[in-house]
Amino acid sequence: MMTSVRSCLAAGLLLAATCANAADDGATVRLVSLAPNLTELVYELELEDHLVGRSSACDYPAAVAEVAVVGGFGRPNWEALWQVRPDVVIATDLEKPGVRQQLEKRGVTVLLLPCESWDELRSAAGALGAAMNEDERAARWVERLDKRLAALRERVAEQWAGRDPPRVYVEVWGRPVTTAGGRTFLHDVVEIAGGRNVGGDLRNRYPAVSSEWVIRENPEVILLAYMLADMQAVDALGKRIGWATIDAIRNDRVIDHIASDLLLRPGPRLIDGAEQLADAFLDMMR
Question: What is the mean pLDDT of the chain?
Answer without folding.
Answer: 90
